[in-house]
Design a protein that fits this description.
about 450 residues; alpha/beta; Glutamate Dehydrogenase, Chain A, domain 3; Rossmann fold; 3 domains; seven-stranded mixed beta sheet; five-stranded mixed beta sheet; binds NADPH dihydro-nicotinamide-adenine-dinucleotide phosphate; binds (2Z)-2-iminopentanedioic acid; oxidoreductase; Glu/Leu/Phe/Val/Trp_DH; glutamate dehydrogenase (NADP+) activity; EC 1.4.1.4; NADP-specific glutamate dehydrogenase
Length: about 450
């Protein structure tokens, strides 16, 4: 019996929508991947016959739990916690934890699904997962954050382990939160299992370079993507949305490479600084004081603050690097960027461009680095942290950074090669989905129906 791959993917997509009702972000992530896989499945129908495509869109396990905690005034709050262990074909589950009021199962599922393919692209042995909670860390005291993290880990610890599932940071989770979670895990398990979490502090098993890795990796990817076309970052005007971990180190590395980042943002608005965003000020406001981005103009009075985060995409630029959150660039934003002369876009955030926005970029010949490939430097360095924990050794910053750079260049090349192999030259969206999928699919084929 011959299988029509296109029809199969359409039917499977419809089943995914039905089975995961009211989860539009997950549908969006699946739709993009299934569309990319059609040529692969036409060539290799056994991935359909062996149930691999159907399995890859179904998480291996979904854990939903109650997270009660007490605030400083003695009031009790009850949040919801999630961990979606999506696929463990090529390694232990691996992926971050997001704390944001918008978190629900559909967000965690889309992130877990993308993580499977992203982790495969790194070339390192890590499966895919994601977790989080609808807890809002904004305005909480250190002690409230600690009590929340402890309660979250009291349940999560049953489901993770250095050879089982290794969480890390994402939106709302950085070094402070990982520290509290690690402390609680260690206490409950009575074991020093350093590799159970990544993004740890340097005094207890963290890796040099992990804090910088996603942003630096993004810029290494962009540099390679431009170099291939005879271009470079030097002298380019760059927009970076967000002002968190990924955004800060994207700004820092872009400046090192001779580009000028003129704007950053948060969910309230954006800052425009024609002189180039000062990264030390950014670190002071966001990492030390944990304040809002409008504070920037107090330090640099010639800079401008504008309400509304989407306005950032109306600033003329050569390169746009969305580093805040999902669906922050829609079709209209993409059209404005193209009209204003933007030549390259690379995604530091996960799924920051809508499907319609992506189409605008691809149709207009914009160099476009999709999240799975372009922001994989963070999780790749997490895997390097796991390696160091297993060896009970630590590498220098230079060693880690050199490995990260190599990994990002390889991701660009493998992604671009996979696209070309299927007649989709320069479509890195398809290339990333294909290259990420094939490795996982081969492992699943070898493991049988499990
Ligand atoms: P942070 O919490 O450090 O920063 C998040 C930034 O994004 C903040 O500026 C925040 O603004 C903004 N933001 C968050 N939610 C929204 C929203 N709904 N609308 C507008 N702005 C928003 O997170 P990270 O920098 O770690 O993560 C940023 C993105 O990068 C996410 O998509 C994450 O999944 C992705 N990523 C992170 C990796 C990592 O290693 N940390 C690795 C790979 C991808 P505000 O303060 O106003 O909320
Ligand atoms: O989206 C991501 O890749 C991350 N948040 C990093 C995950 C990790 O395990 O380092």
């Amino acid at each position: 019996m011959t299988i029509n791959a296109k029809q199969y993917c359409e039917e499977l997509y419809n089943r995914v929508v039905k089975r995961n009702a009211h989860e539009p972000e997950f549908h969006q992530a699946v739709q993009e991947v299934l569309e990319s896989l059609i040529p692969v499945l036409e060539k290799n129908p056994e991935y359909i016959k062996l149930g691999i495509v159907e399995s890859i869109v179904e998480p291996e396990r979904q854990i939903v739990f109650r997270v009660p905690w007490v605030d400083d005034a003695g009031n009790i709050h009850v949040n919801r916690g999630f961990r979606v262990q999506f696929n463990s074909a090529i390694g232990p589950y691996k992926g971050g934890i997001r704390l944001h009021p918008s978190v629900y199962i559909g967000i965690i599922k889309f992130l877990g699904f993308e993580q499977v393919l992203k982790n495969s692209l790194t070339g390192l042995p890590i499966g895919g997962a994601k977790g989080g909670s609808d807890f809002d860390p904004k305005g909480k005291s250190d002690m409230e954050i600690m009590r929340f993290c402890q309660s979250f880990m009291t349940e999560l610890c049953r489901h993770i382990g250095q050879d089982v599932d290794v969480p890390a940071g994402d939106i709302g989770v950085g070094g402070r939160e990982i520290g509290y979670m690690f402390g609680q895990y260690k206490k409950i398990k009575n074991a020093y299992e350093a590799g159970v979490l990544t993004g740890k502090g340097l005094s207890y098993g963290g890796s040099l370079g992990r804090t910088q890795a996603t942003g630096y990796g993004l810029v290494y990817f962009v540099d390679e993507m431009l170099r291939e076309k005879g271009m470079s970052i030097k002298g380019k005007t760059v927009l970076v949305s967000g002002s968190g971990n990924v955004a800060i180190y994207t700004v820092e590395k872009t400046h090192e490479y001779g580009g000028k980042v003129v704007a950053v943002s948060d969910s309230d608005g954006y800052v425009y600084d024609a002189n180039g965003i000062n990264v030390e000020t950014l670190k002071q406001i966001k990492e030390v004081e944990r304040k809002r981005i409008h504070e920037y103009v107090k330090y640099h009075p010639t800079a401008e603050y504008h309400e509304g985060c989407a306005g950032i995409w109306t600033i003329p630029c050569d390169i746009a690097l969305p580093c805040a959150t999902q669906n922050e660039i829609n079709e209209n934003d993409a059209k404005i960027l193209v009209k204003n002369g933007c030549k390259a876009v690379a995604e530091g955030a996960n799924m920051p461009t809508t499907l319609e926005g992506t189409k605008v970029f691809l149709d207009n010949g914009i160099l476009f680095g999709p999240a799975k490939a372009a922001n994989a430097g963070g999780v790749a360095t997490s895997a390097l942290e796991m390696s160091q924990n297993s060896m009970r050794l630590s590498w220098t910053f230079e060693e880690v950074d050199a490995k990260l750079k190599d990994i990002m260049i390889n991701i660009y090349r493998n992604t671009s090669k996979a696209a070309a192999e299927y007649g989709l030259k320069d479509n890195l969206v398809a290339g990333a989905n294909i290259a990420g999928f094939v490795k996982v699919a081969e492992a699943m084929k070898a493991h049988g129906v499990v």
